[in-house]
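Suppose you are handed a protein chain with no further information: no name, no annotation, nothing but its sequence. What can you learn? This example shows the usual starting point.
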Amino acid sequence: MSTPQTLPRRGAILAIALAAALGVAAPLAWAESPPRAPQAAVDIAYEQFTLPNGLRVVVHTDRKAPIVAVNLWYHVGSKDEPAGRTGFAHLFEHLMFQKTEHHDGEFFAPFELVGATDMNGTTNNDRTNYFQNVPTTALDMALWMESDRMGHLLGAVDQAALDEQRGVVQNEKRQGQNQPYGQVWEVLGKSLYPKGHPYHHSVIGSMNDLDAATLADVQQWFRAWYGPNNAVLVLAGDIDVATAKDKVARYFGHIPAGPTMAQPAVDVARRTATTRDTLEDKVPQTRIYRVWNVAETGSEDLERLQVLAHVLGGARTSRLDRRLLHTDRLVDSISAMAWGGQLGSRFMIMANVRDGVEAAQVEAAIDEELMRLIAEGPDAGEVERAKTAVRAGFIRGIERIGGFGGKADALAECTVYEQDPGCFRRSLDTIAATTPEQVAAVGRTWLAAGDHVLTVVPGERREIPEEPAVTPAPFELPAVDAKFTHAQPQVDRSQGVPVPESFPELAFPALERARLGNGTQVILARRSDIPVVQMSYEFPGGYAADQGRKLGTSGFTMGMLDEGAGELRALEFAERAEALGAVLSSGASLDGGNAYLSSLKENLDPSLALYAQMIRAPRFDQSEIDRVKATWIAGIRQEKARPNGAALRVLPPLLYGEGHPYAIPLSGSGTEASVAALSRDDLVAFHRDWVRPDNATLVVVGDTTLAEIVPALERHFGDWRGTGPAPELPAVDAVARPASPRVFLIDQPGAVQANIFVGQLVPSSKDDGATRFGIANSVLGGTFTSRLNMNLREDKHWSYGAFTTTVGAVGPRPWIALAPVQIDRTADALAELRREISEYASGETPATDDEVAKIQATEIRGLPGSYETASSVLSEIAAMVRYGRPDDYVEQRRAEIEALTPAQVRESAATIDPERLTWVIVGDLSKIEAPVRALELGEVSVVDADGNPVTGR
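A reasonable first move is to predict its three-dimensional structure. Written in structure tokens, the prediction is:
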């Protein structure tokens, strides 16, 4: 369950296009426009109907996979909370994941049994939504569950459930506040909107109001807002409208309508003067937020502000990037964005100020670029690149039927806010028709004045005082509108949740193979759902190849491939990429590196040409190395300032020991000193040794054939050859576990949570027992309803979530359990973690038959939904390549999971040795050190975020 405060709702088509289009730093295209294929038409077809009780239903048919996305939006968010009841919408989102009158247990439990994917719920200022993708045969179950919590919840909401979820929400708030810059959104809301405005308070609300919430309060809140006439249900995927009408009427038709609750009037809260504030926080660098209140969602002005945001700071070639990042070198990163709100939207510029630069100098440069843009307007090329980016992002986004930002999200958002499921068409048309003059005009209208500047500076973190508690006014419900009826008979719920008897079979695409003249193996999986071709050139090496080199060499080198190639300098390269609507990127992981391309089918050949330049001939210009190096080092400092980042820098070296190739920060980013020492020669040498066609594999997934793609690849890569002999792969040998448990503490003064990590090495991802251990891990902490999360979150409500995971590796890999917990429960939570892990691994409380069956069901029945997108197929094939798996690995793994016995899982759980664990705990040592030492988990050491011993304490 999530509250997207820091990633606010976008709006119309931006629900699925903006993240992929405007928010992606993507290079692309040709100096002279190459011949292009005709543009593919893009749309989301739908039908709609309304039940007599007012429930609006939108149906989209997409038969590419045997799954259905169920997406239910309630038109209620934090904007609807009166004084004294802040946080109620989000609190109720959590309560609706509890038991109902006909289902006694966690909402997620039945969905895990049928293999649902993309399950979650979120709350923002304007709405609450719930979503899950289910196998087609489990649609009845999903509709039964959603209708039961809409129509039959209140009888199950008791004081215990309220207290439990109140504690979980409060830990969610602490978790957000515990991050660097984590207090920003609460501060901004209060600064941008006057007291009494619906957007003045944060979505997660006030601790005081949450503490004061009574059972009567939340029951009245539910009666007001969660009726069918205040909801929109979208069903997308393997379904048609006739089936939808029958099923939705059966499950939802009997639920009586609720009152018609008034929506607040649009109130942009337009500002006329600049205001500013400074926030001191435990952050590694100064960050500037500059925000304007702008036109509400659904307005043409907001769509044009999206184009302006792209030109100004939404792309690698944007004006702010060119000036402040590339030319003046004043920032380590900068961005501009606009996101929609029902009552009013926000336009924001955010900049991370480079070390040694004054914030005032950055502000002045931003202001100059903004004023120049709105006075003179963008040129036609800038606007066209922005339009291409939006369209390309939309095409990529509509591959997904559900989840965050899929087609179901777009249809629901349009229906809720504009009463038109197809409002994304208007948005696309508005953006396509936008002219440079209109961009300048909308900028002058909204951005010439009225900004608020928040500067976050390094210092001590102080708790933001909450506004004085207010006694809420009596909450009277309006009458139900007489036009709504609910004559439909109810399904018999006495038998409980309807569980399907059969499930769709996995249909992983067939793999076709070829070999290029340069020795590279090509693997193709055909997917023609959208006119896009994705590919990943997979190379050996990775972070492990940093051994004998400076730490961070692999990641830094691979990250530099798209910073100019061939004759194109960095900005020229990015400009070409944007013009083509392509996404190019490159990076490294523990055991390898890769270079990625996502190309529109219509621009495949010119995109391939740019891709080949990136891989074969990166420029490694010294000026770009210097620029990226400063940003990279700032990123390491940001990593160390985040509790999880600090722990994952320290834990692997402790597990592997000095000299092992994996004894490095898990991110592979290196250290400030090692990255500062990198030379151009280091990058050239790494590229020569490891980015070469021999021993490489090119994975292609998308709308193409071998007959089409192989000749194109031969044109661009066929004559590419490696230089000299290929280096030997690093030896990633087995490592002895420590003789006894160890505890390492990292101080984070002022932290309101402690972040607990515990780790141990387990056999490789290539090990014959890897699948069995994966099931054993899931029983302990791999799913929402696993033991650790049920204990620390749902039972004790000391944490927002506690989980276990493994990191894929060719050699011995880390198994990690993690739990952020409220600071005053650190020792208690540690004791519970130790007990749970010890009893499970030792066999004292072994995996039960039911637990194993649940994980088997989740894994097997979730496979059809797991490979809905081309990118998920691409990732799976890349893993097959990395770990030497056969082409039918997905089917083999499925059969192995199906055949597993509880006895085998119990035996595999003993892979974990509770007497040789390594604990890393990040928190305020003034509050947690003494209680942790008193537990006597093992020898205790205090280290810094680089793992160095802290002395003189």
